[in-house]
Amino acid sequence: MVTERGLEVLRAIVQDYVATHEPVGSRSIVERHAFGVSAATIRNDMAQLEDEELIVAPHTSSGRVPTDKGYRVFVNHLAQLRPLSAPQRTAIESFLAAPSDLDDLMARTVRVLTQLTGQVALAQYPSFARAAVTHVELVALAPTRILVVLVTDAGGVSQRISPLPMEVDDADVAVLRAQLAALITGRAVSEAAERISAIAEPEPSGPVAHLHPAISALAAVIGEELAEFRQERLVMAGAATLARREHDFRGSIHPLLEAIEEQVTLLRLMSEMVTDEQGLATSIGTENAPFGLGEASIVASTYGSAGGSARVGVMGPTRMDYPSNLAAARAVARYLSRMLEEDEAAR
Amino acid sequence: MVTERGLEVLRAIVQDYVATHEPVGSRSIVERHAFGVSAATIRNDMAQLEDEELIVAPHTSSGRVPTDKGYRVFVNHLAQLRPLSAPQRTAIESFLAAPSDLDDLMARTVRVLTQLTGQVALAQYPSFARAAVTHVELVALAPTRILVVLVTDAGGVSQRISPLPMEVDDADVAVLRAQLAALITGRAVSEAAERISAIAEPEPSGPVAHLHPAISALAAVIGEELAEFRQERLVMAGAATLARREHDFRGSIHPLLEAIEEQVTLLRLMSEMVTDEQGLATSIGTENAPFGLGEASIVASTYGSAGGSARVGVMGPTRMDYPSNLAAARAVARYLSRMLEEDEAAR
DNA sequence: ATTGGCACTCTGGGGGCCGGAGTGCCAATC
DNA sequence: GATTGGCACTCCGGCCCCCAGAGTGCCAAT
Q: Which domain holds residue B155?
């Protein structure tokens, strides 16, 4: 049972601890926060907070440090995001202006976010899973090699070279192109993938009669391309900033670097975070333990329109500045959404 | 003036120091290396080595540590690469078997190399600069949006979407395709880039008469794609292993992580290394200082055929095991070359 | 409920101490 | 002339001890 003032004390502890990186004592709280009560009173409140496991004392008779649970309460009830400063906003705007393509836009996004927060920045690519295939193009490179290009209405393009088990001429290519187009253009990526996989592995009873015999080889390759579309991707920046922070992670940034290299772990983590009503999500310390990141926190903001709900955010020590990082992630997410909408409008 | 035995002592010091990470004294040398002389004799040799600045004593009356110059002499004259063990060879072979495409092959290459050496592995992509453009394909996505696909004979494919300043129909696209094909197919990438840039920025006197008016927009995009082909690329793996090694880098792995994130620095470094007659190259400690990596060493092996001379290698602390790492890089480079040749033969 | 007072605890930095390892030098030896 | 054993000297690193400072918990008083 924590009192109103108790929560204010928690807020003060979180703020001071994040700022100073040192356990905060009752005396320093009354000095810096004008509570209008004495240190002894604060001590009583702190005892309650400790009962609730919102703070702990690293050693007997030492100041207090927020627990993961304490940070959680802080983020859920106490944190108020301050909007970014004008220079920060213009920095985002100029950084994100006139990207040359999606890759470029995403790369700039994470760069500006790591610059704003000083943390490792992460961004999921917009999802192409719900996109529809608009074009299938075949280019004959050699009698037994065909380049397969796929385009989706979400702006995703993919290309891959397929070897063929037989020689084909221009007429064959035209037939193949028409048959593939009939099969998947206009279809959602996931649906296209199903239809493709049906012919990629010809039935034991032999390939479907009316289709070109070389089509299953192409289908296999197209299946890979479609799988790539469905696969989530991640961009990151700022890994180097971790080097200055190793002491924040119980002495080893190894798990963080591992996760950055792995990508797939972070992708799952990003995907599974729970978004609040503002599109913001946080995952704190031990909440990430199943992913081997029990010493780290992640904050993220959803961007994009109704269809895809991808995220941008940052990963850093549990003792990070949540309000600032959330505000930065949200601001960047908004600009990013806007850029994507503009691009969509142009299409 | 260093005697024959003096060099043997240097070798012993390098080996022991790399193995133990502790300054090595005269006594431990005679114990571990069967020189057949007394510690006092070794001390005399060590004094000479110190005069030549091949070793230093971190403190008065402490064991000796090789200097960068010492490592250089060791690598140039004393190191004998031991061939990899059979299991290591089969590991490479199975790791690199049946890659799905070039990206996949490169990714596997660095993964196996970091696995073999425990260091950060780096690999330059094979160079496409000398490749020739074999295909230009245009796909009309919308009246004012065209997908431009470029293919080279080295297996490089690139695609990009170009907005057009005017609406075009199928006939226009056919004209554009033919005109672009006439301009650059069969040309080397660098030559194609020149020809393209000539029409990308129309002369003040207006676009060249006989070309389609929309061609300059496409040329600009193709120029970007060609630039991408010419640009060197790098893949890396094993950055996480640095976390365990921070004490090897005067306490901060920050410059290394920075370089890994930057890529361009490492690319230049890799490109500028000097290859010996075996295709091996090393760059030790302060030799990398201009790149901000004065605490690190890089070893690399050239792979690929006559045309492109790209490199694979590893980056690690100055006190790395040069013979092993060189042997590993060389082995991986050989397998990689073989894979690429096979692919080329299939094309 | 809040407060001042008080006894108690624990950390972290500083200083001093000492063993161990290693050196440089020298005179003796092969 | 190279090599060697001996010896005095140096320095690091670990260890212990000590103490100031900061902070706590509790209690009796308000």
A: 133-230
Our count of domains for chain B comes to 3
Tokens of A256: 């963080």
What is the predicted pLDDT for the residue at A183? 80
Q: Which nucleotide is nearest to A36 (CA to C1')?
A: C2
Q: Are residues B158 and B216 in the same domain?
A: yes
Cα angle A271, A276, A282; round to 5: 60
Cα–Cα dist A166/B177, whole Å: 27
Indicate whether A307 belongs to any domain.
Answer: yes
pLDDT band per the 50, 70, 90 thresholds, residue B43: very high
Is B238 in Cβ contact with A260 (below 8 Å)? no
Q: How far is the CA of B50 from the C1' of C23 (A)?
A: 13
Looking at the predicted structure, is the pLDDT value of residue B34 above 60? yes
Q: Are B173 and B146 in contact (CB under 8 A)?
A: yes
Residue A81 lies in a domain: no
Interchain CB distance below 8 Å, B257 and A240: yes
pLDDT for the residue numbered B343: 74
Does A137 contact chain B (CB < 8 Å)?
Answer: yes
Residue that terminates a domain, selected from A181, A212, A230:
A230
- Taking the CA atoms of residue B274, residue B276, residue B279 and residue B285 in that order, the dihedral angle to the nearest 10 degrees is -50
**pLDDT for res A226:** 81
Pair (B202, B333) in one structural domain: no
Asked if residue B244 and residue B341 are part of one domain, the reply reads yes
Q: Tell me, what CATH number does A243's domain have?
A: 3.30.450.40
* CB pair distance less than 8 Å for B239 and A260: yes
User: A112 and A194 share a domain?
Assistant: no
| Cβ atoms of A157 and B161 closer than 8 Å | yes
Residues of chain A with pLDDT under 70: 155, 200-209, 251, 305-308, 346-347
Q: Is B207 inside any structural domain?
A: yes
**Structural contact between residues B54 and B67, judged by C-beta atoms closer than 8 angstroms:** yes
Alpha-carbon B282 to chain mean position: 12
Q: Is A85 exposed, middle or buried (0-12, 13-18, 19+ CB in 10 A)?
A: exposed
Provide the CA B21 to C1' C18 distance, Å, integer: 25
Q: Are residues A246 and A148 in the same domain?
A: no
Using CA atoms, how far apart are residues A218 and A147, in angstroms rounded to an integer? 9
CA gap B146, A232 in Å, rounded: 26
User: What is the domain-level CATH number for residue A185?
Assistant: 3.30.390.60
CATH number of the domain that A43 lies in? 1.10.10.10
Q: Which of B139, B167, B225, B246 to mutate to test the interface with A (most CBs of A within 10 A)?
A: B139
| Nearest partner of B139 among B148, B131, B129, B127, judged by Cα | B148
How distant, in Å, are the alpha carbons of A84, A135, B198 from that of A132? 37, 9, 37
Same domain, B327 and B178: no
Cβ(A266)–Cβ(A124) below 8 Å: no
Q: What is the pLDDT of residue B306?
A: 54
B102-139, pLDDT tens digit by residue? Answer: 888 999 999 999 999 999 999 998 877 777 888 888 88
Confidence band, pLDDT 50/70/90 cuts, at residue B305: low
Which of B37, B52, B76 is a domain's end point? B76
pLDDT at B14: 96
Residues A224 and A240 in one domain: no
Q: Give the mutation candidate from B122, B245, B247, B253 for the A interface (greatest A CB count, under 10 A).
A: B253
Q: What average pLDDT score do residues B21-39 get?
A: 90
Whether residues B116 and B237 share a domain: the answer is yes
Given an 8 Å threshold on Cβ–Cβ distance, is A151 in contact with B151?
no
Q: Which residues pair with B136 in a beta bridge?
A: B150
Question: The tokens of B287 are what?
Answer: 């030799």
Q: Is residue B338 within 8 angstroms of chain A, CB to CB?
A: no
